[in-house]
Structures
1.
Amino acid sequence: MGHPDFRVGDKIFATLGYPNNSFAMVQLTPEQQELFVRTEPKTFTPVPGGWGTKGATHVLLKTAKKAAVREALQAAYTNRAPRRST
């Protein structure tokens, strides 16, 4: 699709350069997205349309704080990782 993506298994949990080089995207739950957007509104915004309503979230890189991005990436990875049976 013309930009780097990060996968766990066959599922994308984050991308760089979407929709342009100023942004990244993390795949959060809608509840996680609401929290990140509320606490860091200059950095996190829902992706427009249906993907955004399902938790796809833009990250504006120039305003991003390392700790917040790390937390969002961890959440996105965990959301998409295969579940282990116990």
2.
Amino acid sequence: MPASPSTARAINDRLALRLLQQEGPLTAGQLKQLTGLSRPTVADLVERLTAAGLITVVGESGEQRRGPNARLYGIVADRAHLAALDVRTGGVFVLVSDLVGRVLAEASVPIGGDAGTGPAVEQAVAAVERTAKEAGADRLHTVGIGAPGLIDPATGDLRDSGGLPAWHRSLAAALQERLPGARVTVENETNLAALAEQREGAARDRDTFVLLWLGHGVGAAVVLDGTLRRGASGGTGEIGFLPVPGTGSLPSARDCDGGFHSLTGAAAIGALAAEHGLPVPAAMDGPGTAVVIRDAVAEVTGEGSDSPPASDASGAGRSAERFLHVLADRIAVGAASVVAVLDPGCVVLGGEAGQAGGAVLAGLVEERLRRMSPLTTEVRASILGGAAVLRGALLTARDRAQDDLFAPQDRN
């Protein structure tokens, strides 16, 4: 059965809006070429979308042609404002953007471990409100939150997880109360990082891959055939709890000590670096971990330092080389388990540590996987690093806002 005229119009409108979101401003002629629609049909949809306040003239094409230049149409960026949050154990990162994802304001707010739930939530919510005001946003349409821990697939709420601050679970409700009309959603931080790497980072050419998050904590995200997989209880990728050799104990339902986390978490990487005589920052959070690994890579390659590569040096260079090899051994233990079960073909080493290790660490892990598994697996370093969570939260917020604003309406 052919589509009704109203359904066809809605489909064409959504197609044009998605193209404008992906490609940026386009002329009517470019829309005709990209959509395959007729000139009158494109003219009608441009008129409808302009009247609905969704697109506007943003300039001229500048093409060399007879007569006046063609008008460039773009999405009305200030039609909606969005907020993205990256919630960490010790604080929250916030940014506010327009509908096309242009960042207008951002902030970082530390929250001490001794802060109670109420004060901690108030600090986080106030940070969002201040950032929105700085961005000139009267109201927020959608708020996307990335947080560590399990997301209940039935309710979309952050579940109680051992070792995480209680204020994390109260933040979404508090934002919903203080920001009436806003759509507030929460997603696991590693899942958001995978989304960002797939859309804008190291996995742009991959429909199937696993992101192995290496930061303050350890996690994984699984993308199969272009779809993020969450599991029956929302726990796909809780690889920190994976029992592995070399830890001396087993993890429990509420504590990942003795699991993969004990080999590759920030504290474990700091201890490993100290064992090899490398300088270790006082705080081994995500940035601290990145500094240790980045400095080790620089020692090994000679890049960014006056020292020769480790193969030609002694002392610090050889210590750094041994540190990276042991770290790759540890990472490969968890990665091999994922590869054996899922055969993703590609593992992205994400988070601050994965980005800092770059091609050197990724190559060492890939070499070990070739020895440990018959399944061919490419290992890549994250392009976005720790920023991937915030970027993924923004992409998710933008998608959901556009789904709402671009929904078929009566635009006759």
3.
Amino acid sequence: MATDLLADIQSCMGGFSKGQKRIAKFMLEHYDKAAFMTASKLGGAVGVSESTVVRFASELGYEGYPQLQKALQELIRNKLTAVQRMEMTTEQIGASDVLNKVLNLDIERIRRTLEETSRQDFDTAVDAIVNAEHIYIIGIRSASSLASFLSFYFNHILPDVRLVNTSSASEMFEQMLRISEKDVLIAISFPRYSHRTHMASQYASDCGAKVIAITDSQESPIAQCADTLLLARSDMASFVDSLVAPLSLINALIVAVGLRCRNEVSDIFSRLERIWDEYNVYEKVEETKTKDGSAL
């Protein structure tokens, strides 16, 4: 519903009361600001009562104003330009105590992700990954860091993992040319959503592969072609994408897959430790000794 919200407001304009028309006009012109206003604050901005704002939400078919506000927020997540996001950051966070505000917002996102993530869908995703012949992972722009992180660990614990590099659409499809019903594509996309990730997900689905979408909303483009949907909150309408909750979800996915394959994983890491030690991959940290020679 969020994607058609502004069109719905425009089409209902003739049936609104005088006060509701003022609300509608403000939303159409300043939807980025209205999305973060309480009913009381929005009413004050246009000169109507809070109850008029609540009735306006009902006129549009929402149970209450919070549902309308959520729809507005979903709408702007993929519409705001970087400049508008910067303005929203200034309004929502300000310049004082940024550390406290941003970290607390991220804590809240993780909490909501934990509450809203389907345990059944999570387990289904783990089953699909463990049983896949080949695993493809794609994430573009800011989501590429998540895709690289997931690929790094999955390459340690699974036999055939392919991080899809996407410098061009043709290169992307060339790398996915042989994807089949025995395979899995893990697609990662957060606002502003990548069109290329959506195309890759659709192609994988058309080829019969299972598509696991890691995204923020059921209205995300990649959710439409996903067999399994894993939702993670990324709510900051900012020039910086908050990927804390998605990363936490991906951590859980890595651990769950590792535990499912624990015997093979234990074997692999034993071999890796020998290689790392032989080729001095990591700095050796000397043990600190006490006066009697025992290690601390």
